[in-house]
């Protein structure tokens, strides 16, 4: 009877834990305040560029465009780093939990 209860619990946990791990890792690695500020700066730069005439103020518009591209690249790098960390953490936790389940089942 104990073996049935343990194996049933292990199977249930094996199916539930990946969802819990994904939820927890997305909460832990949520957007940082710095990224939110970068998004606000991007929207401000876009508004400033929309208000300028490209023909009349080319130098100012080009400077804003370069700044916009730079901030956008920084934001993309931050997002990619966070995504890579999230994937690594999820894989590590899910597979270590599955290895632990197999060890418990075989013991």
Automatic annotation (TrEMBL):
Q: Which InterPro entries match?
A: Get1, Helix_hairpin_bin_sf
As one GO molecular function, the record gives: protein-membrane adaptor activity
Q: Any transmembrane segments, and where?
A: none
Q: How does it sit in the membrane?
A: Multi-pass membrane protein
Q: Where in the cell is it found?
A: Endoplasmic reticulum membrane
Gene3D superfamilies according to UniProt:
Helix hairpin bin (1.10.287.660)
GO BP terms, alphabetized: tail-anchored membrane protein insertion into ER membrane
Predominant localisation class: endoplasmic reticulum
Q: Pfam family of this protein, just one?
A: CHD5
- What are the UniProt keywords, alphabetically? Endoplasmic reticulum, Membrane, Transmembrane, Transmembrane helix
| Cellular component annotations (GO), alphabetically ordered | endoplasmic reticulum membrane; GET complex
Q: Which family does it belong to?
A: Belongs to the WRB/GET1 family.
Query: What is this protein called in UniProt?
Result: Guided entry of tail-anchored proteins factor 1
**Which organism does this sequence originate in?**
Atta cephalotes (Leafcutter ant)
């Amino acid at each position: 009877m104990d073996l049935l209860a343990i194996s049933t619990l292990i199977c249930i946990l094996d199916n539930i834990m990946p969802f819990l791990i994904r939820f927890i890792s997305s909460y832990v690695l949520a957007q940082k305040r710095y990224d939110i500020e970068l998004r606000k700066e991007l929207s401000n730069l876009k508004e400033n560029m929309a208000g300028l005439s490209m023909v009349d103020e080319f130098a100012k518009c080009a400077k804003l465009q370069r700044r916009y591209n730079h901030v956008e690249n920084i934001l993309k790098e931050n997002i990619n780093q966070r995504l890579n960390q999230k994937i690594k953490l999820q894989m590590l936790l899910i597979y270590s939990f599955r290895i632990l389940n197999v060890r418990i089942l075989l013991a």
